[in-house]
Structures are given as C-alpha cells and as structure tokens.
Amino acid sequence: MLMSILQVNSEDIPPYAIVCGDPKRAEMIAGKLEGTRELAFSREYRTFTGEYEGVKMAVVSHGVGSAGAAVCFEELIRAGVNTLIRVGTAGSYSQDIPAGSLVVSIAAVRTEGLTRQLVPEGFPAVGDSQVVNALFEAASATSGVVAKGITVAVDAFFNGVVEIPHKQYKQAGAIAVEMEIAALYIVSTLRGARAGAILAIDGFADAELSEVYDPHTDAVGLAVEREIQAALRAIVRLAREDGQVTTA
Ligand SMILES: O=P(O)(O)O[C@H]1O[C@H](CO)[C@@H](O)[C@H]1O
Ligand SMILES: O=c1cc[nH]c(=O)[nH]1
C-alpha cells in the first residue's frame, strides 16, 4: 500500500526505523547501512532502507516540529514499523550536560499542541523501556557524557513575547529541550508501536537562543556520530531480543 505523504510502499518498509529531523542526517545515517536504497524524498520526508549487521531498517527524516513529524510517525507505523528511534539534537538544561553530550529521553513534557489533539491532558508521553535501555547502554559504550531523563517538547524554537518557562522545567528536573519526542511517544503509544529517542546536545537552552544556537560545531558533529552508532547498536540488540537476527 502506498503511504500518501511519505510516498513509500508499505511492502518496502521493515519493522525497525530510525527517524531524525534533518533529511541530510537521514542520508548520513543511511550511508552507514549496506544495500542502501532511497525510496522517496517527498516534502521534508526522505526515506531510505538498508541493512546494519543483518537487520533491515528504514531511515526517515521527519522535519522540524511535532505536527509534521507526527504524519511521518503515523505513516511509518501504518506501513508496518513497530520500533522507532529518534536521533535528534537538543538544548541542555544542565551545566553537567554541555554541547557534545548525549541525552536519552525516557519521557517528554507535552508543551506542544499536536498531542493535545490526540490524547487527554495529563496523559504521559513515555518512551518504551526496552528501547530506552538499549539506547542508554549503547550510548554509554561510546566515549563522552551520556545522561538519561525527562525532556521537554516545545513548538516554538525562537521566543516570542511569551516566555517559554525553561527555568521551571529545569527546576522540575527536565534535562533537555527539543521539538518532536512528545509526538513520537504519544503516536507510538496510541498505535501500539515502541519508541525511544537519543539527542546530541548542541548548547544550553536559552532565552536568546537565536544568538547562541550553533548545531554545526565539531563537538556537536562528534556527538551526532556517537548517537547514530548508539541507535544502530540499539536496533541490532532489539532485533536480536526479538529473535529477528540469528547471527552473533
Ligand atoms: O536535529 P533535529 O532532529 O531536527 O531536532 C531538533 O532540531 C530542530 C530545531 O533546529 C528540531 O527539529 C529539534 O527537535
Ligand atoms: O529544539 C531544539 C533543538 C536543538 N537545540 C535547542 O536548543 N532546541
């Protein structure tokens, strides 16, 4: 069946998927697979398939923001994906988690608008514990800071005149902020799929983000490489636990 927005056929989509905001990052991840095929590049959604250590997977970009990303997650799950890992970037709330660190999101604060149209207020956006643990263990095997905790999902990247209460989220214990994990966790829970997310920290979340935001430094580039390795390792482990890979 053709997925109308991603423009991919469900027959070509395996059960495991890595998703990320940037189509260029999708290409970079797909470059690490064997037998890579680009299936479609429709709007911001670029879809590749390939194999890593015997596990077939899709790599798909979902663009910036929850509403568009949710379309991608919905269609992937309709196409047969049952395990989704987001490989993203985020701003940090902690001096102990500087640029270049990795964060694994166990759950997301739903400050965005998309999930309010899907589930009632108070319903939690939670990652799948098996996926989250696989990601955390794989990330911990790479060199550098790795943290695990609650992340915040926002809609507004740049501030308007209404201040985003980053300080309160930080005081409440959240460790990083990005834009799509709440959508990923709610859509996955609703549709019976499992999901996790890993993030490369690109700086501190700040009221004047427009002046300091730079996701193109060497430290962030290295962290993106580390998170990609962690996501690939986590998928191989999950596939083994699922009995989908027989080789050691
Ligand atoms: O690097 P990605 O995966 O796009 O993630 C983060 O970067 C974008 C903002 O620049 C948002 O999509 C945010 O969630
Ligand atoms: O949403 C995002 C993504 C990266 N860095 C941030 O500060 N926010």
Largest pleated sheet: 5 strands, mixed, barrel
Supply the number of structural domains. Answer: 1
> Structural class, please?
alpha/beta
Helix content: 25-40%
Q: Note poorly predicted spans.
A: none
Tell me the CATH architecture: 3-Layer(aba) Sandwich
Percent strand equals 25-35%
Radius of gyration: 17 Å
Each distinct ligand: 1-O-phosphono-alpha-D-ribofuranose, uracil
CATH evolutionary superfamily: Nucleoside phosphorylase domain
**Biggest sheet, spatial arrangement of strands:** 5-9-8-6-10
Highest CATH level, the class: Alpha Beta
- Described by the principal axes of the CA atoms, the overall outline is globular
What's the β-strand tally?
10
Average pLDDT for all residues: 95
Distance between the termini: 34 Å
Q: Please count the helical segments.
A: 7
CATH fold category name: Rossmann fold
- In N-to-C order, the SSE pattern is EHEEEHEEEHEHEHEHH
Task: Please supply descriptive tags for the structure shown above.
248 residues, Nucleoside_phosphorylase_sf, Uridine phosphorylase, 32% helix, Rossmann fold, five-stranded mixed barrel, alpha/beta
